[in-house]
Structure formats: C-alpha cells, structure tokens
Amino acid sequence: MFTVRCILRSSAWRHRIRPQNRMSTAPHSLAAVCQVTATPDKEANFSACKQLVEDAKERGASMVFLPEGFDYIGSSREETLSLSESLTGDTISRYTQLARKLQVWLSLGGFHERGHEWETDRRIYNSHIIINDEGDIVSVYRKSHLFDVELPEKGVSLKESAFTVPGPSLMSPVQTPIGKVGLGICYDLRFPELSLALQRHGAEILTYPSAFTVATGAAHWEVLLRARAIETQCFVVAAAQVGRHHEKRSSYGHALAVDPWGEVLGDCGGDNPGMMLVEIDLGKVSSTRRNMPVQQHRRDTGFYHSLEKT
C-alpha cells in the first residue's frame, strides 16, 4: 500500500494519512516535502527546519526538501542583503553538519548566497543547494528566472532583480537515493523549457522549492506543478513557505507532491508549517513514459522554430 502522510505543525502535531492505491516502492525511496514559515530570525528558522529534518529522518526519509527562503525572508531589500552569507558561512555549514550527523540528503531550496562580486555590487544569488548524506555539497543551482511582477489588483509587487543576480545556467540532474532530481526554484516553475531540458538530461523527479504569493498561488500553483509533471512524466515535489513572514509578506503554502500522471499525492494545506512523506516509485515514471511515449513523439528542435522562418 502506498501512503502519503501529511504531518502539520501548529501548537501540536496533527496527522493526516491519505492512503492511495499504489505499488510499494524499493527501499530508501521516501522523501519528506516540508512547509515552513520563515521570518527574518535566522536562528529561529534553523531551529524549525532542523526539527523537521530530524522528524523526517526518524520517519524513514532518505531525502528532505526545504523551501525557497528556508534561511530567512527579509522585510526589506536592506535586511535581505545584510542577512545573506556565502556558501562557506555559518548557515550552510550547520546544514552540512546536520546532513552528516543524520545521514540524510537535503534539498535547500533558495539560499540567499552572496554573489561573486559581493564586495563591489552587493547583490546575491537565489541558490538551490543539494547536500548528500556525508555532508558534501554536490550541486548548486542559481535561480535563472527572477520574479519581477506588478499585479496591483492582486496586491502583489515584487522585484527580485533589484538585489538578485540571475544564475548563468541549469545544472544536470543529481543522482540521489530517491532518483535523479532536477533543480528549479519557484518562478522557474512557469517556464516549461527548463523542466523539459532537465527531463531530456535524465530527471525523474523535478523540484520547485517556493515562496509563492497568496494571490498567484491560489490561481496557479497546483495547475503549474501538475502541468510540469504531466509534460515531463516526472514526479514533482515542491516544498513551500506558508503564512505570514512579517507585516509586508505572506506565502500561499500547499507544499505539494505530484506523480508522473499528474495526480496530486499530497498537499500540506495553507495554514501551518509541517511536512509530508512521499514514496517515490520510479517504476511509475518508467510505465508512464512507456505507455504514452511523449518524448519519442516530440519533433526535432527545428520543427518548433519553423514559424520563425516564415
């Protein structure tokens, strides 16, 4: 029996078990998809995330996914920049030690990394870091699509490029205990070219750690995640920020897991921090692709650019 267990945290732990008819998977294929409410308090954020990682490991997870802004969400441009660190700083060092101690893989989805020219331009990267169970950083993807959006009727006004440098390239999918994981971050979700590129290079699981706004999340979050799963025939896991971070910003929540057929396996809701445990059955990836061989039916790149020649 396949189960997704969604464990929410408020004043007490609450358990919601959603059984679904799925074949059991191979050992070491349990992923924990987390939902947190980060604030500008880095120490409190680490404590909350550490508890989630420890609980996930205790429940058998071999890889834990944390959302964009897991380290903090600042209340101003100045605060966001002042709290940033390098990859060799205290925050990532603590997570590498945690991964090593617990022998668990970590997806840290959206770290405020000081840019290569920090001393002169005071700009940062939004970086998705994969740490293995020995505490080694095995991949760093820097977010390539920045969220510069003005939706006055929705009360949304964010300009990520004011302090963030876009990443220079995609990163190859990472072989992990749950399968080959392709890395994106939040707004990258809206660009199918990215997910298809990762799928072509072997991704079996796509991950989009996010801090979606309430307005855009309610409109687009689930449908975009399901679309990315369906078009690539991959699992999609999306850790999320939830609730009020400070007086200027709140996030939608609903950390989600989707299978390669586009079925939602679990949803952590829009109210509280917590996590869900999801079994990743790579046989589902193989059977979905075999039964509907979309990638084999795809035409060559030139075909899709043929309109540009007319």
From TrEMBL:
It comes from Seriola lalandi dorsalis. Keywords: Hydrolase. Its EC number is 3.5.1.128. The lineage of its organism: Eukaryota, Metazoa, Chordata, Craniata, Vertebrata. Belongs to the carbon-nitrogen hydrolase superfamily. NIT1/NIT2 family. InterPro entries: C-N_Hydrolase, C-N_Hydrolase_sf, Nit1/2_C-N_Hydrolase, UPF0012_CS. It comes from the Eukaryota. The keyword Hydrolase applies. GO terms for molecular function: deaminated glutathione amidase activity. This is Deaminated glutathione amidase. PANTHER family: DEAMINATED GLUTATHIONE AMIDASE, NITRILASE-RELATED.
